[in-house]
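Here is a complete protein record:
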Amino acid sequence: MVKNANTESFEVAMKTMTITIERTPRTLKFAGVEINVEELSVELPFARKPCSLEEVGGYGNYKVLVTETKEMTPEEFDSFGRTLLKSRDWLAGKGGGTGDGFLCVEITAPGRPYLYVNPEGGDYARYVARLG
C-alpha cells in the first residue's frame, strides 16, 4: 500500500516480464568424446569459486552448453546456494571449457533462479552463472 501527498491510499500493481531463451541441441566433441548439449541463446557472466549466491555476478560473457539438468527442491537449492564450494558427488568429473563456452550442469528449483555450474572436472561449483 502506498499513500500519496493527500494521504489517500492506493494499490501498486507489480509488473512482470517473461523472457524466452532458446535452447539449441548440439553435438560437441570434447576430450575425444562426442557429447550432446543444449546451447542457450544468451551468454552469461560466470563467477569463479564463489562461496555463496551472494558472490555470483561474474565477469565476461560465455556460451552456456547444458549437459544435464539437476532438479532440486527449494530447500535443497537454498542449501546448495549457501555452500557452493562444498564437494558433491553429482558434480564430480563434469563440466569443462570448450573454447566455445562452458559445459554446465543446469540447476533448477521452483521459485528460484536458474544456475549454470561448470565444476571444471572437480566436485564443487567452480564457475557459476545465474539467470533470474
Summary: The two ends are 26 Å apart (CA to CA).
